[in-house]
UniProtKB/TrEMBL annotation:
Protein name stated in the entry: Myelin and lymphocyte protein
Pfam families, per database record: MARVEL
Record key words, sorted: Lipoprotein, Membrane, Transmembrane, Transmembrane helix
Residue stretches making up the MARVEL domain: 18-152
Subcellular localization, as worded in the UniProt entry: Membrane
Biological processes, Gene Ontology terms: myelination; protein insertion into plasma membrane
Top-level lineage group: Eukaryota
Length: 154
């Protein structure tokens, strides 16, 4: 079922194999953590709507992009082409940079909310959003490293 092989043993797989062996980290983690960031940011109220808008854009964009790539891999649409390895690497790099910027902006917003003790509930919600945004950043960086290794070997 494996369709393209690089010299260092990284495979571009399709079907059920995609879920467990494409990366050394499970693929559904990006969707779960990204969805949590999306929900937490949507439920929080921040004094800077432009920052919240960017964080929402990043979380929704990366969530849709990851789901789309996962569905295409599950369907076997890549057909063994090496351009799909490059597309995966580009998407993972873009998502990692976007999530890093969103996590830093969300952390800044949370820090500014911490200066006002009246907004303690919103502060706790934003702390959770910041933690999950940095976890999502870490996961995208891990996926980026494996995508770049697979791209280099193809």
């Amino acid at each position: 079922m494996c369709s393209a092989r690089g010299t260092s043993g990284f495979w571009l797989r399709s079907g059920q194999v995609t879920l467990s062996h494409t990366h050394h980290v499970p693929h559904f983690d990006l969707q779960i953590i990204g969805g949590l960031v999306w929900i937490l940011v949507a439920s929080s109220k921040v004094p800077y709507p432009m920052l919240q808008g960017w964080v929402m854009f990043v979380s929704v964009f990366c969530f849709v992009m990851s789901i789309s790539l996962l569905c295409l891999y599950l369907c076997g649409a890549h057909g063994g082409g090496s351009c799909w390895v490059a597309l995966d690497a580009i998407c993972q790099c873009t998502a990692a940079l976007f999530y890093l910027s969103a996590a830093v902006l969300e952390a800044y917003t949370t820090y500014s909310l911490g200066l006002f003790p009246i907004l303690a509930h919103q502060y706790r919600e934003n702390i959770a959003a910041v933690v999950f945004a940095f976890v999502a950043t870490l996961l995208y960086v891990i996926h980026k490293v494996f995508s770049l290794l697979r791209w280099k070997s193809s």
